[in-house]
């Protein structure tokens, strides 16, 4: 990316931490100095926040890169660290999970409850013949049993593979087969958009093709009708009748904890493998540091689904290892009304909210008056993850959710990194809207050019991670060579994240989206993220997705799909005028080279189930092709909506 239009976006706003938060912060600037002086000693110290059954002999073994071993010789039990030790410390009555179902049913689960439920599930799985090292697939809605199932696997050393409950038969089948899972844990169904949605038929079809599966445990959630096979067992007959005592055994620090498949749209999904000691160390520490979590008083809410890594690390393992009280919600943000999230924040007095830019932009589109209708005064910290957050969405989040005063932490990481890597520290960093700022203490990242040479401040290129980190993926399940090829070959010795990035004049990191999405216009590399942010900075725009379409004169040309904000008139000439204005607006903010050839006003954008925009499909529209594979779309009717309602200006 030698010719990247670096610093196209002149974002100069900066928001220092609130003085009161800084004064009481869990982590201060000292942590950076400490980690810089001795990175391994720093992680050694963070690992000691956990309870280990056996101490380690070596912090990091990097003698056979890229295969890392952290806390070599150490032993611990992940579930013990998330449950037993808190109950032993007298915290059994503390609420672990305030759960809310989409229809409005609720459950309050204390740490003592969660320990009992997990022990029962561990005993039941053991009775079914599951032993350490076996794989268990979990295909559940967002109900407490999802966390219980994961913790029970961790407790007995079985490796879980959670498959998002919205995935199809094929996706589930591939994942069960790739990991040779012995047991599947599922439910009759869950609630989604106001109605029960069945899961069991998908499992039936998948299991019919998966001879390794010996048993299917079924939670009753919706009470819907299910067909029963001889492999099926009800959770309430099996787990809820099992013994309530279970003694957790320690496992090796490098024992496999879970496999999670990245949702690749073209290539075969990759089973990302995470292990025990390093993973728990980093997710536990980052929960403490980045969310400034105070377990006695905070009420934490991460809105992700447990089927994504965000749910693994910041619903299950991070918060629970810190003895946090958290909220878990089953459903969608607009069921039964668009204030649902804010109602939940208000009801449980949430103090920390962690959500995704796609949701923030959706809330912007729905209008400022919706959050304004609720009491959000309990909130003290806001987080974002999953995509680059456009500066205007960041500002809106802080303004309309954060009363114009709360810190926003924009956290960059990946399924592969296991835990957060680049993020502000809320008590230390003066955050810039749209920037993930700096690598966390103990993390080494850089931005390099094509040749792997670090770019100077002001330059752009590829994001790399230059030293191993505790929660790094250990391999791709069953495919060491693919692990090496995908992540460690582009820049030997360094991890290639696949994201474009730039360093600003102060050396802070700005993520520019996946490198595959960068556009080449008249010989200039232009980031989709920057053009999208320029569009979203216009008061009439809620959301935008930009793609490069083949163009006879410029190689690629910029085509933008834009969702107007709720109040904006786009009929007839007003629409044409808005399009003209937006094209000029982008040219003015980024320079004439970035002026979109074409802007289309659309009601929706195609997104994957984890909320990422599927630019591939928009490229098909922009280049007048028939659509490629749409099976990973969250809502398959969106593409029809886009193609039928196009208002396009050239
Ligand atoms: C990709 C990883 C991290 C858990 C959820 C997604 C993008 C993620 C940010 C951020 C800019 C971000 C990157 C990354 N991404 N967070 N704060 N700023 N981009 O996990 O599905 O493995 O996706 O999401 O492109 O590589 P994932």
Automatic annotation (TrEMBL):
Pfam families: ACAS_N, AMP-binding, AMP-binding_C. Residues 530-612 form the AMP-binding enzyme C-terminal domain. CoA binds at residues 192-195, 310, 522. The modification N6-acetyllysine is found at residue 612. Its cofactor is Mg(2+). Its EC number is 6.2.1.1. GO terms for molecular function: acetate-CoA ligase activity. Acetylated. Deacetylation by the SIR2-homolog deacetylase activates the enzyme. Residues 29-82 form the Acetyl-coenzyme A synthetase N-terminal domain. Keywords: Acetylation, ATP-binding, Ligase, Magnesium, Metal-binding, Nucleotide-binding. InterPro entries: Ac_CoA_lig, ACAS_N, AMP-bd_C, AMP-bd_C_sf, AMP-dep_synth/lig_dom, ANL_N_sf. Residues 90-469 form the AMP-dependent synthetase/ligase domain. It catalyses: acetate + ATP + CoA = acetyl-CoA + AMP + diphosphate. Catalyzes the conversion of acetate into acetyl-CoA (AcCoA), an essential intermediate at the junction of anabolic and catabolic pathways. AcsA undergoes a two-step reaction. In the first half reaction, AcsA combines acetate with ATP to form acetyl-adenylate (AcAMP) intermediate. In the second half reaction, it can then transfer the acetyl group from AcAMP to the sulfhydryl group of CoA, forming the product AcCoA. Belongs to the ATP-dependent AMP-binding enzyme family. This is Acetyl-coenzyme A synthetase. It comes from Micromonospora sonneratiae.
């Amino acid at each position: 990316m030698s010719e990247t239009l670096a610093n196209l976006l002149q974002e100069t706003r900066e928001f220092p931490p609130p003085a009161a938060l800084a004064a009481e912060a869990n982590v201060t600037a000292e942590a950076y100095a400490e980690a810089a002086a001795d990175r391994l000693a720093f992680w050694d110290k963070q690992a000691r926040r956990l309870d280990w059954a056996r101490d380690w002999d070596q912090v990091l073994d990097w003698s056979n890169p890229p295969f890392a071993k952290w806390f070599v010789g150490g032993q611990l039990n992940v579930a013990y660290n998330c449950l037993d030790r808190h109950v032993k410390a007298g915290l059994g009555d503390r609420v672990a999970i305030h759960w809310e179902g989409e229809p409005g049913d609720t459950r309050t689960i204390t740490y003592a409850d969660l320990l009992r439920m997990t022990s029962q599930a561990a005993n039941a799985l053991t009775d079914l013949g599951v032993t350490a090292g076996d794989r268990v697939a979990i295909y559940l809605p967002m109900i407490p049993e999802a966390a219980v199932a994961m913790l029970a696997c961790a407790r007995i050393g079985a490796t879980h593979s959670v498959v998002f409950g919205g995935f199809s038969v094929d996706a589930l089948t591939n994942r069960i087969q790739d990991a040779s899972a012995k047991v599947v844990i599922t439910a009759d169904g869950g609630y989604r958009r106001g109605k029960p949605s069945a899961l069991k038929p998908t499992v039936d079809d998948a299991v019919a093709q998966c001879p390794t599966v010996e048993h299917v445990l079924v939670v009753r959630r919706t009470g819907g009708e299910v067909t029963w096979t001889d492999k099926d067992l009800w959770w309430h007959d099996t787990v809820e009748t099992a013994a309530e005592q279970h003694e957790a055994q320690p496992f090796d620090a490098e024992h496999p904890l879970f496999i999670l498949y990245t949702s690749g749209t073209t290539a075969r999904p990759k089973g990302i493998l995470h292990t025990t000691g390093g993973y728990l160390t980093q997710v536990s520490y980052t929960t403490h540091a980045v969310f400034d979590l105070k377990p006695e008083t905070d009420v934490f809410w991460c809105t992700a689904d447990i089927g994504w890594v965000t749910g693994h690390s910041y619903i299950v393992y991070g918060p629970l290892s810190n003895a946090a009280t958290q909220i878990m919600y089953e459903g969608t943000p607009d069921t039964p009304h668009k204030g649902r999230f804010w109602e939940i924040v208000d009801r449980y007095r949430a103090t920390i909210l962690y959500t995704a830019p796609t949701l923030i932009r959706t809330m912007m589109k729905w209008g400022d008056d919706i959050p304004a209708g609720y009491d959000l005064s309990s909130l003290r910290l806001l987080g974002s993850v999953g995509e680059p957050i456009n500066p205007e969405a960041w500002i809106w989040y802080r303004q309309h959710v954060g009363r114009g005063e709360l810190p926003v932490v924009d956290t960059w990481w990946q399924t592969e990194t296991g835990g957060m890597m680049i993020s502000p520290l809320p008590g230390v960093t003066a955050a810039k809207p749209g920037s993930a700022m700096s690598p966390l203490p103990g993390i080494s990242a850089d931005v390099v050019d094509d040749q792997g040479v670090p770019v100077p401040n002001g330059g752009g290129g590829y994001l790399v991670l230059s030293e191993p980190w505790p929660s790094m993926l250990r391999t791709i399940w069953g495919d060491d060579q693919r692990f090496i090829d995908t992540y460690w070959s582009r820049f030997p010795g360094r991890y290639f994240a696949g994201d474009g990035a730039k360093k600003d004049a102060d050396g802070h990191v700005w993520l520019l989206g996946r490198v595959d999405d960068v556009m080449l216009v008249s010989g200039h590399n232009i980031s989709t993220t920057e053009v999208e942010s320029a569009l979203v900075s216009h008061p009439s725009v809620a959301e935008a997705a930009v793609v490069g379409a083949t163009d006879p004169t410029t190689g690629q040309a910029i085509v933008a799909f834009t969702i107007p904000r709720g109040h904006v008139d786009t009929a007839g000439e007003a629409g044409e005028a808005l399009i003209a204005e937006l094209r000029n607006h982008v040219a003015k903010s980024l320079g004439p080279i970035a002026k979109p050839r074409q802007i289309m006003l659309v009601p929706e954008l195609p997104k994957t189930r984890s909320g990422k925009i599927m630019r591939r499909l928009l490229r098909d529209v922009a280049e007048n092709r028939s659509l490629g594979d749409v099976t990973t779309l969250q809502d398959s009717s969106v593409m029809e909506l886009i193609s039928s309602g196009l208002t396009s200006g050239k």
